[in-house]
Amino acid sequence: MKLTGRDANAYFAKPDPDRTGLLIYGADAMRVAIKRQQVLKALLGPTAEEEMRLTRLPGADLRKDPALVLDGIKAVGFFPGIRAVFVEDAGEAALPALENALSQWQQGDAQIIVTAGALKPASKLRKLFETHRNTYAAGLYDDPPDRAEIERMLAQSGIAAISSDGMAALTDLANRLGPGDFAQTVEKLGLYKLGDGTDLGVSDIAACMPQSTEAGLDDVMNAVAESRESEIGPLIRRLRAQGTNAVTLCIGAMRHFRTLYAVASAPGGPAEGIGRLRPPVFGKRRDQLVRQAQTWGPDKLQRALTLLTDTDLQLRSAGQTAPSLALVERALIRLAMLGKPR
């Protein structure tokens, strides 16, 4: 049978111990791995590995030795409890072994949990699990987790309460991060809030979210927008050491100043403009953008965008001979001087 959407998430959280098996497939290997871990933990408990109630089989091995799955589901364990055979990264070559195991499965045998990559609707492996009367097949796609899934992950990490702003910020983060990074962030939040009885808020999320080159770019842009020109050179050198090039830096500056212009030029002023941004901005970052937009104003921001456009054209010019990063650094210092009150 086929599982989709909310039904799939509900089954992953509470799998049926009387089922013959489950196929989890999808193009994103990390999403598949996270759901497989969730299912196995919910089905077998946290001590299955130590109690030898879980047998792991690489899908590629079934082509050479098809009897591995059947032997695994029929084996009698020393410890009591539900058992499972996990077949990892199965392909169409594993089909004969899995067909044979499913046909000979009986009540009390180990459950068969299979993971695979992206499978087309015509896939024989997918059809095997979708048409079998006692198995499920669940396809995972590149959709970010919904509110119910985020709340489940938070509860699993020991976080019982979250503010409305915190949930909005976490939902936005889930849309921007990959599944693995987001899962690690939620785990980190659980440790960060350990023993803290307050609701999870925006400041907590900001403290635990992954640090990346984007954060470094934000540091440079804030130094420019706040006219801290002495900090620009050292920050750019740090980004260069991380592999950031001049074009990336220029694009980041254009994006930041376009955002400021959108905030500053709103009919109701920056307070209205910040509320129109998509994705939304929260916490200290929100206050910072409003303050920068108020300091610059629409006219100065237009001049800043003109300067950045000219710099971008210079970078892309065939006759450009000056060092690219030096060119961008000079433009950013000029911007910082432009933003100073006169």
From TrEMBL:
Domain of life: Bacteria
Reaction it catalyzes: DNA(n) + a 2'-deoxyribonucleoside 5'-triphosphate = DNA(n+1) + diphosphate
InterPro entries, per database record: DNA_pol3_clamp-load_cplx_C, DNA_polIII_delta, P-loop_NTPase
Iron is among the record's keywords: no
UniProt EC number: 2.7.7.7
Enzyme class, first EC level, given as a word: transferase
Keyword list, A-Z: DNA replication, DNA-directed DNA polymerase, Nucleotidyltransferase, Transferase
Statement: the UniProt record of this protein carries the keyword Nucleotidyltransferase: yes
Family the entry assigns: Belongs to the DNA polymerase HolA subunit family.
Protein's name in the database: DNA-directed DNA polymerase
